[in-house]
């Protein structure tokens, strides 16, 4: 990687040198004589936010708006009558002419140029598949980058939660862990990211999900979410699960503008996922459980009065390490003193172990250029501390873009680089987070003996493991947007994306597990991993557009693209490193199966070649039609099955232009209908070994002591077909008075020949095989609305809301009614049921006479939880994945002060309560969920109890933990304040008094995920486990433009 760092450094230096050498056009054009006349004004978006980079012209004079949307244009003399016509233009906006009148403040609102068909403007556009004809009939949603940039979050993926209806983002746990991202739910029976995650495209090149996580939001101009077949058709089979299309910020013509953004603040503990017992209740639980390894019973009069002196000495010996020869009265006195001492301690382990931390992010960018060359350079450093000691993430990013304009069009070069490191104290089988729920409230960090972990001190539980992961990312794209003659546009892009992931896990030789289980020469473990992902993509597109009779706009586009992906994995694990905590310290002399050095590696490659054709037609801004066809060949499939297709048809009507009495109206200013239909093959669930034979070396088997044996990696299926996704989408958009909008989308997507790993007889030598097993339906509704209520010079108020409903249903399982994995009695999938339906037992409660937990089977008979559960015992309970997600928020402004707030909500899902911290006689020495004493049956006559007799059989508690039931499940709804920003813009007069060095400045108080409200008591409502959930972050932010 030294070459990468050198290349980035050199290119940055060259770019800065070029930018600094560019003539200061605006400055030169505004220097005037003594009779100069000055015009000032403000240019804003429709929502009132300032527009930067707008070119303002008056004859031969021109200037550009600053980051605050303000401009100053100086003329040689006063215009005649104090009136002057100005022309304002910006990329992506309609060119507008306004009249300046002396003595009247000038405020201009520029409208988006979406839908303009009478002229084609060639500009730098690395995302060459982002054609206007696609957006007219497809579902293309755009992320509000202004709101996104106000979320102080180090992870771009998590920051997208609630950004667009239909885009779901689920937090998976600790800081730095990749979240789950879906567009309109899951499309395959095969679960996991590989089969259901969207495609990520940055400036025309395909990037990995890991690379997307580390992008800097301030370097992004826009993010588009492509949802339906029309929107994704140009990408072919790669885009079956939707696309996140990211466009980077580019340079602008004008003097160099320097922007400095810095924020610092704190991360908070967040929502306590559950309440654990305090000392009094925990001691009482131990007494009721009657377990001598717990002090609540060991020191109680109940035990001391009933046990023999011999049993007392033996219990004290095994638990405390002492064998006193006391009288019973002395035992009673000692026990009383111990209990009184323990009752004085009330340790809140959540408060002690889950800690606030710090957050900081600093960004410096330079932007500018001449009429022919523009540049953008940005660097960012961010760090976020985790909730546990030893957990944090830091990231560096660098972005650089150059755009050259010639007579024929643009040539653009983009470079991105990044470095990220995450530290974690969590191993695969233990996390310090567990101690929050396991250490007792009467124990402290200085306790010499822990009842929760017999024989250990607190110091034996921390510092036992550490892990770090590093990511080094480099990407580049070279694109051309050329217009050799009227109507023809040629676009090409080449992109490279390289991500190197390195990891190291160490269990120190001093760790308790090593000291107690290993000999000195065996102590200390190290595991090192290295993973590289390389993506190369190329796309060439030719588009011809012709306008006939000023009404008929026809576009035809053809392309060919190529995509190559390579992933390499290497891992090494060794023991006996002692105090030498690096690979060279591994004891290579250890030969036992669990201690000898272990090496593993893999190399996987795939390639796709595609050819596509698309056409679009627009009639007089009233009717839009679109059709696309794409054929892609993949190296993952056998030769006779390599070619697969994606096609789409779409249309749109602009009724406000089509219906005469609506045309030109001031009330109903927009009324549109859209419809699309398409089919896309999906290769997401297919690996290189699924459909063709892939072999691997045996590690310890040889033939004739000289030939290494090879074996099939997995049992391949040469009849395998990709998932076939058929989709239908209907859309309605309404706009009132150019200020209030409503968008509605209905969709249905059927996946045929859906893939899943199916169980096969072990006589094949394998236990499972990927196969086409059935069909799945995914359907839903998406609503979004916005309203600009106030848009005056001083007062501004706008409201927004969105709601998405998604449900899935198994349509067919090719001759079966359900699919079961292994010996499971509940189905993985059942015809007519949801994709991830929850099955469980219809609990009736605890029998007050026997203490048995009872349930009702499908025939209505009462059964005990202690029986062996069979399929007929289970009933359907509800959806595991919440079908409803949405947001609502507001933007309120008064003069230079602005408030933004965004709420995210989820409802309709069910998650079972985890039984992990509901204690029985085997683990009552550890802390328990608060309230367990009053909800557990202990004696005859205990009524309305949730938990059975703690001495019920093992089968009862195994079933209780393994199967959800109707009394221990809850709705997983939640409401979260996902973003809050209070921003103040410093006045121009103040900046002038400071010397006009700073042209635009804001100061803001910003927060993300500040609180979460939920009725769910079983941990995190997102995961249904006792993970820590998302971190609340609160920062002070300063933004300066020079």
How many β strands by DSSP?
48
Average pLDDT, all residues: 88
CATH topology of the domain at 132-256: Ferric Hydroxamate Uptake Protein, Chain A, domain 1
Report the biggest beta sheet as strand number plus sense, adding barrel if it closes. 22 strands, antiparallel, barrel
| Fraction of helical residues | 10-25%
Helix/strand structural class? mainly beta
**The CATH architecture of the domain at 132-256:** Beta Complex
Supply Rg: 33 Å
Defining key terms:
single chain; Immunoglobulin-like; Ferric Hydroxamate Uptake Protein, Chain A, domain 1; 22-stranded antiparallel beta barrel; 5-stranded mixed sheet; about 15% helix; globular
What does this entry look like structurally?
With 1042 residues, this protein is mainly β. Among the domains are: 32-109, Immunoglobulins (Immunoglobulin-like, Sandwich); 132-256, Ferric Hydroxamate Uptake Protein, Chain A, domain 1, CATH 2.170.130.10. It is 14% helix and 45% strand. The protein has 21 helices and 48 strands. It is globular. It starts with a helix and ends with a strand. Residues 1-34 and 114-122 have low confidence and may be disordered.
